[in-house]
Amino acid sequence: MEEIEQSIIHEVEEEVKPKTWKDTLWSITKTVLKFAVTGGLLYYVFSKVHFSDVKSKMQHANYLYIALGVVFYFASMVASSWRLLSFFKSINLRVNTLFNFRLYMLGIFYNFLLPGGIGGDGYKIWLLNKNYSLPAKKVFWAILFDRLSGLWAIGLIVVALKIFSPQINVSFSIPLAVFGVGSVVYYFVVRQFFKEYNNKHFFKGHAKAVLVQSFQVLTIIMVLLGQDFTGKFAPYLLAFLVSALAAVVPITIGGAGARELIFQKGAPFFHIDAGLGIYLSISFYLISLFVALFGIYYVIRPSRLEDGMGKSGKPTLEKEPITE
Fold it and tell me: Quick check: is 178 in a domain?
């Protein structure tokens, strides 16, 4: 596990150093490969589902509901930055809420628009390590648990939605058992090997993760309502949450292509319309991309990122465990 930490930290450090021509070439190559994989997956999907069908849905959507979807997605980003604060508190780091939110938005921008670079998480690790003398591996694990809490919340909501999807030919006991056993193993590992993170802030972070995923589910509901949808929501929401797992694997641009492939391949299993599912996936991607663009403000005006860091200009590193 120590080797994994050092490998990731080393990669972050290498990315922020001045670039040699080899580094630049490798960064460009990774970006080109991601675009190639994304394009290839989308080409395959639209060879099975007519693009004209998806295009028609986009043209005739009720954009008031789309706007509400943007609002809910933005709310999920606010909740996400709030969730991250809990995991920072687990390592006795108090970061100003406003500063953390601005850093989070900048990170989202990096994740979307700089696919060949260190990404938003890498930037956070580098920034807190470089400027605040905080061990990089502590920040790394705090951010990793932040991500894992999101996956755990997806699993919880998937189990809940299965109750409302009797048409899916899978016994409710199977996802319930998988989620239950997975949660127990997950907590056992944390308790045994990451005792520093096993505190009330860890549990608060996971509770906030449910809020984050709920806002994203509401985003999809708004997109569906924008199509005057009157069918069963649960199967589409289930397919969306499963497709969200595809975005975790960093082989495409923001999960594009991989999400659509899951909707196309999973349509018979989930008993959904493949064209509508792909429309949902593309709409969610465009909404998330639109929100991510707000992060460019802190690239243009980096001084604004530091506003709200406090009079000292730094987060507070607590000597003792924080109690509230």
Answer: yes
pLDDT digits (tens, 9 = 90+) for 173-215: 888 999 999 999 999 999 888 888 888 888 999 999 999 999 9
Distance CA 241, CA 239 (A): 6
Amino acid occupying residue 213: Q
Q: If we measure between CA atoms, which residue out of 291, 157, 283, 154 comes closest to residue 223?
A: 283
Work out how many domains the chain is built from and give that number.
1
Mean pLDDT, rounded, for 279-304? 87
Residue 56 to residue 171: CA distance in whole angstroms: 36
**Cα separation, 38 vs 24, whole angstroms:** 21
Which DSSP state fits 198? Answer: -
Asked whether residue 128 is assigned to any structural domain, the reply reads no
For β-strands 93-94 and 316-317, DSSP reports them as: antiparallel
Nearest one of 181, 239, 313, 254 to 34, comparing CA atoms: 254
What's the pTM value of the predicted model, to 2 decimals? 0.85
The residue segments making up the domain with residue 152 are 20-93+146-301
Q: Look at residue 6 and tell me if it is in a domain.
A: no
pLDDT band at 119; cut points 50, 70, 90: low
